[in-house]
Input
Amino acid sequence: MKVCVIGTGYVGLVTGVCLAHMGHDVICIDNNEQKIKLMQAGRSPIYEPGLAELMQEEMATGRLQFSTDLSFGVNHGEILFIAVGTPALPTGESDTRYVEAVAKGIGEHLPADSYKVIVNKSTVPIGSGDWVRMIVLDGVKQKQNGHTVQFDVVSNPEFLREGSAIFDTFNPDRIVLGSSNSKAIALMKQLYDPLIQGQFSAPEHLKPIPVVETDLNSAEMIKYAANAFLATKISFINEVANVCDRVGADILQVAKGIGLDSRIGNKFLQAGLGWGGSCFPKDVAALVHTAEDYGYQAQLLEAAVTVNNRQKLIVVEKLQQELKILKGKTIGLLGLTFKPDTDDMRDAPSLKLIAELNRLGARVKAYDPIVSQNGISQGLSGVLIENSPEMLADTCDALVLVTDWQEFLHLDYGQLGDRLQNRLIIDGRNFLDRDALEALGFRYVGIGH
Output
């Protein structure tokens, strides 16, 4: 099938590359000329394991192209994906002006002699399907040639995890399609048929993928509800971990015990520094704001946000317990990104941690496998970025594990300890081997552990 993906951010680029790998003829459109030139040269503008290689492979087959020409893309695609950003505004609501601009542009370029399915892949406020239809029609009217166009709008939310987005695309738990039109749903099923039949699944996932067919509003709510539930689950286990610290229980054992309950499950029960990134903070805030618009206070979600904001600073409390006064102390952070296997710093717990340590008069250093190597630290303030764990450890009064990168499991902590002022490590993800570190003379402090 012929596909146009408008927007080459995280979701758009991954979607376009993976659809091309499934055999579709894909054109990715973006209005950023520099970004398009970068991708036309076979370079990915984002870090995601395996993405650049797959992108180059599909470009070589001719199934994947990049362009700034929206008219070219709209005329090419039977299915048009809107995959632009919807960042959070200070009020918590989503900024939908990019979606509006794309929808209007699609309307201005829709041909009269074909049927198009316009897909909301961006995370948009509930009710946006009908709104996008209205904006597209506004664009059509501005052409002033009186011709009619045929199109339907489908909501097809994404559920990708940064760091494993390609795997998640080919091994989804479900495919959600929201529309009131059976023809549009049928075309979307045709598009995803290789996934639905499990043709691209990993060996352990070789099974048909369920398709959830809903109305537009319900599909949009599924996306928000899924992320809000996962964020709340993380805040819950962090709340329990903080109680464990006070009563002498071990959150690792507690999480295992409750995670074996089939009604609860063991995923997203890892206590730590809280959630960040581009999805959870934005989507929870948007759902809270939507509830307010309709006269309801989402108190549970508000509490999840409050717990998460506090959790990002739990490390500061533990440092104060161990070192007392932090003024004049040097603290080394292992990791900066909000999770491993990504370069995403959006709403990362490290940012709030750095700001608070600076406020208390501490000197902050950091090493991150991606940030240190890719030079993306220019936007960071109040922290000295080191090029190796060894340089990080020099003169530090404590190390704090912030991001659970796999390479941090295999560092020579004996050597790092020799460079530290104090053999103190705060494990903000309960990730490291406590017994091994204590055998090396470290004072190990975990979260509820």
Q: What stands out?
A: The longest strand covers residues 115-120. The domain at 224-310 is CATH 1.10.1040.10 (N-(1-d-carboxylethyl)-l-norvaline Dehydrogenase; domain 2).
